[in-house]
TrEMBL record:
Residues 734-746 have a biased composition (Basic residues). Keywords: Metal-binding, Zinc, Zinc-finger. The lineage of its organism: Eukaryota, Viridiplantae, Streptophyta, Embryophyta, Tracheophyta. Residues 721-732 have a biased composition (Pro residues). PROSITE patterns: ZF_SWIM (PS50966). Signal peptide: none annotated. Residues 693-775 are annotated as: Disordered. The keyword GTP-binding does not apply. The keyword Coiled coil does not apply. Residues 619-651 form the SWIM-type domain. This is SWIM-type domain-containing protein. It comes from the Eukaryota. GO terms for molecular function: zinc ion binding. Residues 701-710 have a biased composition (Low complexity).
């Protein structure tokens, strides 16, 4: 600096330093600074002037702005995470304490005695009564603005919201985060969405310096972000930001796109499809984000996502005890059972979870028919296992979920455990008077036979037909099979089976071996008010919860509960609006029969007894007993076609002859009770039981290689007997003909020659005596 500067020299400038303040955005303001000025500074006097400013573009830009701003430079000092305001307040308090001691304070307090109340408390200032006078308010400013000028309002910094769409995230000066990981994840989204090649120059647990374009480029990208922890609170904050880019867009990122970033974005998809391959994930990343990643990154991303999901699953299974206690607390009388497996190392593993709400059970007992469909369906997401359910039928022939259980595997043991709890809930005993519908699962058939020997067990005809068609195909078989299924009398069934037998005796034997008493109406018991030959109600329930089956276990159970709870309410409200004797579905069936009965002639033959005839087919109908020779009326509880014809002959209303099981009164009894709501998960009670872990993955059994299926089963370890005879010698490989040319030489194609060389087949070209074969 020159001793006698010349004010007219263009190299002399004034530097104003602003320090001990703090930046706040929107708009950018520097709060409570101290100021010091240095005048007549000659930067050209520094020896390293040219090289220094050449390497630091910010300083050169400052000088250019200073010369453009009438030779004056303003420098603002950013103290990052230093508690400047705390230091200033501490210094001010110390200075005040030095100026005023305790004696002086007491003198001041004694000299100013207060013997009146504050004016604001005694005489509240009136509201702005002149606000409506235009003239009086011409030069008046709002009172709120004066208050804002009088008081210091601390800046309000934005908080990072992870729920924001990933392609709309961007850094903002002062934005606060819980930790550096959140900031780096947000910057990754920002870089991918805009094609910026960001990189971390400084990256540790206390600070983060981010720049753009790591490779030396001319000109360099000015983007710069600095973040560190705040001094007064445990918050990671963006302290300085130059959010400008002049670089080219890129779509192949380095360290900014990690396998963790990919795993977080594909977490939900992996939950729904845990078997997603790394190559398929790579293609989805390229399609969704328009970036290129490696297969190894996707493989690691899947591992990371599965580990995160596994941790969440452990928490889900561990809270099953509390979830069951919450159900019992909010719905007294409900049945909840959790079965666990204790391993040799004292580890507790989940096995089964059973739920039956009291409201649902009481509604079924009062308003539903004693018909229950049993079925199971696989879980589709990351949780492995099956949902086994018991579904009834309401008075309108719609589904009525009764109970459900989550099991690891569907077998005889789990079915027997489920049916045993179900029969205890509905007081079913050994199954007398109850009809069960199911598929042909062997474990289920055995469990029903052992636990409910007195119940009527029907098999779903569609499942039998599916297995039947695997061996006997053709429309003729399908048509005859359904005739046999819907035959309501034994005579009709035998006639249809004879037709099948005349076509193929093996098909006849196959159906007879499947026990026709379980799938043909001809052998169904009367008085159950249900002639269903398919387990459609269970299939409908499985379809209704198809989305819930992709969720973690407690989430799935909660979605099933909410579905049933809401359905009970909506069905009750809908039923209360009906002004009908019987339910709409049954009424529609009666109306259809009224149209079809006109072709049948009715001949009375006694009190309330009639013969109903069409051409050469006739049936006897007894209106008092509500019976028909076709047995449809007895099976369904709804007048059949012949019964409707006889009722119409008397000009009676057929709805009066319908069973009480289909009335609106019975329908409202089904949905009379409600499931009580549950509290949120943080309010569930704690239980003193060991938290179960997720079940281990089952592996398919590997067949033993020590003994074939034809070995003697009586042989065992320690009693092997004589060694088996040696196997017979292998048969020689059959010779293969090859084409021969007119000259007697073999004609090998290029493919045959390559195969011979690759497999090193001996003898190629060695049989000169017999050139027409290959050894």
């Amino acid at each position: 600096m020159a001793s006698s500067p010349n004010p007219t020299d263009q190299n002399f400038i004034v530097v104003d330093f602003h320090y001990n303040g703090q930046f706040a955005p929107n708009p950018l303001v520097y709060f409570d600074p101290d100021r010091a000025s240095v005048r007549d500074v000659d930067f050209s006097g520094f020896g390293s002037w040219n090289s220094y400013t050449g390497e630091h573009g910010d300083y050169k830009e400052f000088l250019d702005l200073a010369y453009a701003n009438d030779k004056r430079m303003n420098v603002y000092v950013d103290h990052h995470n230093e508690p400047i305001f705390d230091w200033i307040e501490a210094e001010e308090s110390e200075s005040e304490n030095e100026d005023l001691d305790e004696d002086e304070d007491s003198v001041i307090q004694d000299s100013y005695s207060v013997d009146h109340e504050e004016d604001d408390a005694t005489y509240p200032f009136p509201a702005n009564k002149t606000a409506r006078d235009r003239f009086l308010n011409i030069l008046c400013e709002p009172i709120e603005s004066e208050d804002q000028d009088d008081e210091y309002v601390p800046p309000q910094y934005p908080v990072y919201d992870e729920r924001q769409p990933w392609d709309q995230m961007k850094p903002i000066i002062g934005m606060r985060f819980c930790n550096p990981t959140e900031l780096k994840h947000m910057l990754s989204n920002y870089a991918v969405a805009n094609g910026y090649d960001l990189w971390f120059e400084k990256n540790d647990s206390d600070r983060l310096l981010v720049k753009c374009c790591k490779k030396n480029k001319s000109p360099s990208c000015p983007f710069r972000l600095w973040a560190s922890w705040m001094g007064k609170e445990k918050t990671f904050q963006i302290k300085s930001l130059v959010n400008e880019h002049n670089c080219c867009r890129v779509f192949k990122f380095g360290s900014i796109v990690t396998y963790r970033w990919i795993g977080k974005h594909f977490m939900s998809q992996i939950i729904e499809n845990p078997k997603m391959s790394a190559r398929k994930m790579k293609a989805k990343v390229s399609t969704t984000f328009n970036i290129n990643v490696s297969v190894g990154q996707c493989r690691n991303a899947k591992k990371f996502a599965l580990q995160e999901i596994e941790g969440s699953l452990i928490e889900h299974y561990g809270r099953l005890w509390s979830y069951g206690e919450e159900i019992i607390r909010s719905n007294p009388g409900s049945t909840v059972r959790l079965d666990v497996d204790i391993m040799p190392d004292s580890t507790t593993l989940f096995s089964k979870f059973y739920v039956c709400f009291k409201a649902v059970r009481d509604g079924w007992l009062e308003g539903c028919r004693p018909v229950i469909g049993l079925d199971g369906c696989f879980l589709k997401g990351i949780v492995r296992g099956e949902v086994i359910s018991a579904v009834g039928r309401d008075a309108n022939n719609h589904i009525y979920p009764l109970a459900w259980v989550v099991v690891c595997v569907e077998n005889k043991e789990t079915w027997k455990w489920f049916i045993d709890l179900l029969m205890d809930d509905i007081n079913g005993g050994l199954g007398a008077g109850i009809t069960l519908l199911s598929d042909g699962h062997k474990g289920l058939l055995q469990a029903v036979k052992e636990r409910c020997p007195e119940a009527e067990h029907r098999q779903c005809a569609r499942h039998i037909l599916a297995n039947f068609n695997k061996r006997f195909t053709g429309q003729q078989y399908i048509k005859l099979f359904w005739r046999a299924v819907r035959a309501s009398t034994v005579e009709k069934f035998r006639g249809v089976m004879e037709n099948i037998k005349s076509i193929d005796t093996h098909a006849y034997d196959y159906l007879i071996d499947r026990d026709p008493t379980t799938w043909s109406k001809a052998f169904f018991q009367e008085g159950r008010d249900c002639d269903a030959v398919e387990n459609g109600v269970s299939e409908s329930f499985n379809s209704a919860i198809r989305h819930a089956r992709r969720r973690p276990i407690i989430t799935m159970l909660e979605e099933i509960r909410l579905f049933v709870m809401e359905r009970i309410y909506t069905q009750r409200v809908e039923g209360m609006e009906w002004d009908l004797l019987i339910c709409p579905t049954i009424r529609k069936r009666i109306e259809d029969l009224k149209v079809k009965q006109r072709l049948w002639g009715v001949t009375p033959c006694g009190y309330q007894k009639y013969e109903v005839r069409f051409t050469d087919v006739a049936y006897g109908v007894d209106l008092i007993a509500k019976k028909c020779a076709c047995r449809i009326w007895q099976l369904t509880g709804i007048p059949c076609l012949h019964g409707v014809a006889a009722i119409s002959y008397l000009n009676h209303d057929a709805e009066a002859y319908v069973s009480q099981s289909y009335t609106t009164e019975a329908y409202l009894k089904c949905y009379k009770y409600s499931i009580n709501p549950l509290n949120s998960s943080e309010m569930w009670p704690d239980v003193p039981y060991h938290k179960p872990l997720p079940p281990k993955r089952r592996r398919l059994p590997v067949p033993s290689s020590s003994r074939g299926s034809g070995a003697d089963p009586s042989l065992s370890r320690g009693n092997e007997g004589p060694p088996p005879p040696p196997p017979p010698p292998a048969a020689p490989m059959p010779r293969r003909r090859v084409p021969v040319s007119r000259s007697g030489r073999r004609k090998y194609s290029e493919r045959i020659i390559k195969q011979a060389l690759r497999r090193q087949i001996p003898g190629v070209g060695s049989n000169a005596d017999n050139p027409s074969v290959i050894d």
